[in-house]
Amino acid sequence: AMELPPGHFSAARAAAVAVGYLRYLRGGPGRGLELRALRRARRQDIDDVGHKYYLELELEDVLDKDRTVNCTAEVLYHLGSQTTAPDVQVTVQGELRSTEEADKEFYNRIRSLEKELVAENIPDSHGNVPPELEPIHLLAWVASGYVIWQNSTENTKFHLAQVKHVKQVKRSDEDLQFDYVVLLHEMVSQEVMPWEVTVLWHPGRGARVSRHRRSPRECLS
Amino acid sequence: DQVLHIVPETFQQVQHLQLLCNTLMLDLWKPLLPEDIRAGEELHIRVPGPLVQEVKDSLDQHMISYRVLIPDVQKLVDQSMPRERGSHRQVSGGYVYTEYHPMEEIYQWMTQIQKNNSELVTQHFLGKTFENRTMYYLQIGQPSNKPKKIIWMDCGIHAREWISPAFCQWFVKEILQNYKTDPKISRFLQNLDLYVLPVLNIDGYIYSWEEDRLWRKNRSPYENGTCYGTDLNRNFNSSWGSVGVSFNCSSDVFCGFGPESEPETRAVAQFIKSKKSDILCYLTIHSYGQFILTPYGSTTTPPSNNEELMQVAKEAAAALTGKYGTSYRVGSTALILYNNSGSSRDWAHMIGIPFSYTFELRDTGTHGFVLPANQIQPTCEETM
C-alpha cells in the first residue's frame, strides 16, 4: 500500500465516504459525527478488484466537541463500477457518548405531536437551525450519510448542503418515519443535487434508509 | 428570568407586593408603578433568575397565588430576535458586519465607506453585469503622486459563497478602522494600494438571495433562456475549456462559450490586464474548504515561483491557525482539490502577477455554503 499525503484529494474523497457511512451506522437525532482531521491515508491498487484506501481519522461528536473520536476506516472502490457502492469498514476506538436519554426524549416528543412535523430549509439561508429542529437536522446527516456512501466514486466528494424539506409520516408500527429532500453538494462537478430519502428510526434499533432516489433539479422550487 | 401573573385579593396582599417590588427592585410590567397595584387587578412582574425562588417563597408565605406567565424570558427574546442572538455583534458606523447583507445594502455600504473615509477610499466603476448592474471596486490607500504597487482582492465570484463578500466588507472595515492606530496598516496603505471588489458576481448573488440559495454561476441565459449561467471561475483565459469544466450550460461548471465570454469576467480581466505591471498580488476569496490554494488547477506542473508562493501561503495558514485553531491546508488546486481550467487565479498568475492565491474560507463541509452568520466574525478575524 502506498502512503498518500493526507491533503491529497483522493484521500479526502475516501474520508468523506467513510464519514458518510459512519454517520449512517452510528448517527441519530442525538449524535452527529464530523471529521476533524484526516491523520493518515494509504492506498492499495488491487488487480481486478479496485482501489482500497486505508484511513486514520479524527472525528468529533458535534454535541460533545471537547472529546476526540479516533477511528480507522477502509474504503474499497470497485473497479470500473459506477453503480456499486464502495465497501466500507469503520472501527471506532473507544466508546461514543451515550444518546439513550436524548433519543428517548426525541422519540416521545415526536410521537406525541398532534400534527405530523413538517419543516424546510435547515439550516436557513443565514445558517441558522432552530434548537428544536437540531435532532431532525442530525437525522438528515444519517439519511444523507447513506446516500453519500451509496453513490460515491473516486471522482466525487459529497457534502450535505441543506435539508430542503422534511415531512414526518405517522406509522402504525413503532418506528418514526421522516421523508427528507436533502441537497447534496458534489465538490468536483460543483453540482447541488436533490435526493429524496426516507428514514425509519427507533431509539433501540437506530436508523434505516428504506427508500432513496435522486430527484430532478427542477423539483426544487 | 420569569414573569409572574398575580391577582392580589386583599389590601394587605397589595401592600406586600408593593413592598416586594420596592425592596427587591423588581421589574413591574403591569401596572407601571407599584402605587398603581390594586386588589382584583392583574399584575405582571419580571423576576430576575436568582430571585425567583425567594419571591415565590414570599408569595407562598403570604398566601398570594400566582402563576408563571413566562418561564424563560431570555429564550423568548432570542426567539423573537434571532439575528441578535450572537454575543459578538460587530456594528461599525451603523453597519452590522456580523450579518449577511443583500446587494442593495452592499451598494449603500460602499457609498458610505467612501464618504466616511474619503481621504483613503475612492469608489470606481469596473463594468456591468449581464443584467446590467454596475460593478464597483474600492481603491484604498494613501494618495501619492508616485505610482504604487497594488494588491487586488475580489469576493463573491460564486453566488452561494456568502461568507466571501462578508469577508471583503469586514476586511475593508478592519483596515480603515485601524489605519490610524496600527502602524503596520498605515505603512501598508502608504506603500500600497488595495483594490477590493466586494461582489464580483452581482447577478448571481442577488439570485441566491431571492430564488436559489445554492446558485453558483452568473445569470447569462443560454439556449433561448432555457438554461442559465456560466461558472465565472471557469471562464477566464487560462487553459480555458481544457479540464474540470462542462460544455453543457446546465452544469454548475459550465465554462461559457469561449474564454471571457461573460461581461463580469471581461470587466475584471480588462482592468487587471491594464494594471498588471503594478499588481503584486491577486487574491480571490471563496468558500468552503479551508484552503489557501496556489496555481495551477489545470496542471500539476508547478508555477515558476512555487517555492516562494508556498512559503508565503504556509506562513499565512500558520497565522490563521494561530487565531482560533482553524486549520487551513495549503497547496495547488490540482493536488488538493480537483482539476479545473479557466480560473481567475490561474489566469492572474499566467499573465505575470507573481502572487496569486485562492482562499477557501470556512468550513470543511459541516455547514458548507450555508455558514451561520455567527461564524462571520471568527472567520474574518482569523483570515485577517
From TrEMBL, chain A:
Q: What is the species of this protein? A: Callaeas wilsoni (North Island kokako)
> What keywords would UniProt list here?
Protease inhibitor, Repeat
Looking at the record, the residues that make up the Cystatin LXN-type domain are 1-101, 118-221
Query: Which InterPro entries does this one have?
Result: CYSTATIN_LXN, Cystatin_sf, Latexin
Q: Give the Gene Ontology MF terms in alphabetical order.
A: metalloendopeptidase inhibitor activity
A Pfam family of the record is: LXN
Source domain of life: Eukaryota
Query: What family does the database annotate?
Result: Belongs to the protease inhibitor I47 (latexin) family.
Q: Which GO terms describe its cellular component?
A: extracellular space
Name of the protein in question: LXN protein
Automatic annotation (TrEMBL), chain B:
Amino-acid biosynthesis found in the keyword field: no
Task: From the Swiss-Prot or TrEMBL record, state where the protein is found.
Answer: Apical cell membrane
One Pfam family this sequence matches: Propep_M14
- Cofactor(s) required for function per UniProt: Zn(2+)
Q: How does it sit in the membrane?
A: Lipid-anchor; GPI-anchor
Peptidase M14 domain location is: 99-384
Q: What Gene Ontology molecular-function terms does this entry list?
A: metallocarboxypeptidase activity; zinc ion binding
Annotated keywords: Carboxypeptidase, Cell membrane, Disulfide bond, Glycoprotein, GPI-anchor, Hydrolase, Lipoprotein, Membrane, Metal-binding, Metalloprotease, Protease, Signal, Zinc
Q: Which GO terms describe its biological process?
A: proteolysis
Name the family the entry cites: Belongs to the peptidase M14 family.
> What does the UniProt record say this protein does?
Carboxypeptidase which preferentially cleaves C-terminal acidic residues from peptides and proteins. Can also cleave C-terminal hydrophobic amino acids, with a preference for small residues over large residues.
Q: What is this protein called?
A: Carboxypeptidase O
This protein's species is Callaeas wilsoni
